[in-house]
Amino acid sequence: MIKEKYIAGVDIGGTRVRVAISPLNLKKELVKAEIIETPKDTKFSISQSVCILIRKLLKNNNISESNLVGIGIA
Fold this sequence. Notes:
Helix content is 22%, strand content 36%. The protein is of the alpha+beta class.
């Protein structure tokens, strides 16, 4: 597992939800992102999707959840 510290950024829009993870140095070439259409099935659809996307990005990039030090949501 990668031991570097990471942050996540979430942009929730009416059309799309974008989630990205980045090491603290914010180097553009190291940012990993996922984009989905904004789910509108239930009142929990968006929050559940954000959690799923963050976990997916962490897993796909071999990053432990304990290395995620913050999440910003807009």
